[in-house]
Amino acid sequence: MLRQIICDKFREPILTFKAGLNAVIGDEVASNSIGKSSILMIIDFVFGGDSYIKANKDAVENLGHHEFKFSFVFGEEELFFSRGTKDYKYTTICDGNYNPVKTIKTDEYTAMLKEKYQITLKDISFRNIVGRYTRVYGKENLNEKKPLQYFDKEPKKESILALIKLFDKYQSIKEYELQIDKLTEEKNVLMKAIKNEFIPKVTKAIFNQNEKKIAELTAQLEKVKKDIIGVSVDIDALLTKDILELKSEKSQLVRQYNIYENRLKRTKHNINQEKLNIDPELARLAEFFPSINLEKIKEIDGFHNSLTGILKEELKKSELELTKQIKCILSDIEKVDRKIEEKLNIKNAPKYTYEKVIDLSAQIQQLNDENSFYTKRKSLEDALASAKSDLAEIRSSIVADICSQINNRMNEINKLIYPDNRRAPTLSIDGENYIFATFGDTGTGTAYANLITFDLALLDLTCLPIVIHDLPLLKNIQNEAIENIIKIYVAHKKQIFIAIDKIHTYNEETAETLEKNKFLSLSKDKTLFVLNWKSDS
C-alpha cells in the first residue's frame, strides 16, 4: 500500500497514508482551488499516471519542476521511490533515506508495482487496471454513464475487453482471437496474390465451369486411354509428375513465343512503313491559305523524317533482338520435347496419342489447380466465420457471467447505501456496446452514487488494488447516502482515496469518521502548495 508522499512544495511536506479510507478534507465553505483534486492527481501520479503533467500544467508553471518522494509497504518490506515532473517518464528507486539507487522507466516501475500487488493478470498493464478507477477531476473517466471508460475516445469494445481482462477471463477469448488473426492473415495473403495476378481469381461461377470442363476433359482422356491400350502403351508413364511439369513448361514457352512473335510482326510493320509524301497535301493547303510558309513546314517535316530515321535504327535493333530471343525459345521448346520423348520412352505408340494424353492431363491439372485456390479461399472464409461465431458465443457467455457478478454485488452495496430499497444500478453488455443505468431513476445524485457503487463492486470482486473518488462524484449525492458510502469506505481494507468538504453537514458519526481517516486538511488559508497562484492576495 502507499505509505507516504514527500514534497518540498507542499505546505505540509510529509503526507502519510494507511490501509482503507484516506480522505483529503476541504473546509466548511467548500473553498475551491485549494488542492483537493491536485493531491488526488498526485496520488495517481505516484501510482504511475501521467495526468498530473497534462491536467496540472499550472503547478509546474508556478512552482517550477518539482519532485515527489514516496514509499510503498508490502508486508514487512517498504520500498522507496522518487519521480519528478521534469523526467516523469522515469522513476527512481531509492534507499531508505531517498538517496537514488537506480533510475528505471516508469513502465518498468508500474510493472514492479503490479508484481508487488501480486496481480498476476496477463495481457493488461498495471495502469490499465488502476488508471480507469482513479477518478479525479481533469481525467476523462468521470462520465457517470460510462463507468468502464478510460478516456473520452476509447471505443466501448476496448473498455469491455479491459473489464474481461480484469476478471481474468481473457485467456479463452485470446485463443480464438489468435486463431482469427492467423486465418485473417492467410486470407489476406491469398487475396493479395489474386490482386497481383499471381494466382487466378476464381469465382463460384468459374469454379462450376471448371468442374464441368474437368468432367469433359476426363471423359476424353479415358477414351484416348482405351485407344492407346490397343497398342500396349504404358499409361502410367504418360502421366508422371515430371511429364506434366515438362508439359507445363512447354506451354509457358509457347505463350512466350507467341508474345515475341507478335512483337516482331509489329516491329517489322513499323520498319517497312513508307515515308509520307506531303507535297500534294501542302499544295491543297496553299490553295486555302496562300500566305502559309510552306518552306517552314517542309523544314519541320524534314526534322520529323530525321527522327523517324533514328527510330528506325532502334526498331531494327529491336527486330534483331526479338529474332534472337524467338530462336532461343524455339530451341528451348525442342529441348523440352526431347526430354518428354526420352521420359516417355514409348516406341510402339503413335506420337499424337501420347501428346493427346499429356495435353488433356495438363489441362485437367491446370483447372484443378485453379479450383484449389477457390476451395482454399472458401475454406478460409468458412473457418474465419466459424471462429468469429465461436468467439462471439464464448464472449457473450463470459460477459454475461461478469455482469451477473457485478450486478449481484452492486445490488448488495446499493442496499447499504439506500436502505429504503431503491433500485440498484445494472450493467448490461451486448456485443461491443454496454449500458449502465438504474431503471426508472435518472437523477444526477443517483448516477454518481451508481458510479461509486460500481467501483466498490470491482474493488470487492477483482484484484483492483485502489480507487480514487474526487469531490465531483461525492458532492451531488444526498447526505444520507454519503454517510452510508463512508461506512462502506471505512470497512474496506484496500486503500480508497477521496476528497470531500463541508463534513459537518453530515451526521456527527460521519464527520468523526472522516476526521479519523483524513491524511490532509485544506482550506483557503491552508492550501496544498506553499505558493497559492490562484488567488489575487
Description of the structure:
The structure is a single chain. By secondary structure, this protein is α/β, with parallel strands linked by helices. The chain has 17 helices and 13 strands. The strands form three sheets. It has a six-stranded antiparallel β-sheet, with helices on one face. It has a five-stranded parallel β-sheet with strand order 8-11-12-3-13, with helices on both faces. A two-stranded antiparallel sheet has the order 9-10. The relative contact order is 0.16.
Layout of helices and strands, plus pairs?
Elements: E1 2-6, E2 14-16, E3 21-25, H1 36-46, H2 51-55, H3 57-63, E4 67-74, E5 77-84, E6 90-94, E7 100-105, H4 106-116, H5 126-130, E8 134-135, H6 156-166, H7 170-195, H8 204-229, H9 235-238, H10 241-271, H11 279-288, H12 294-344, H13 351-417, E9 426-430, E10 433-437, H14 444-461, E11 466-469, H15 471-474, H16 479-491, E12 495-500, H17 508-516, E13 518-521
Parallel strand pairs: 3-12, 3-13, 8-11, 11-12
Antiparallel strand pairs: 1-2, 1-4, 4-5, 5-6, 6-7, 9-10
Helix pairs in contact: 7-13, 8-13, 10-12, 10-13, 13-14, 16-17
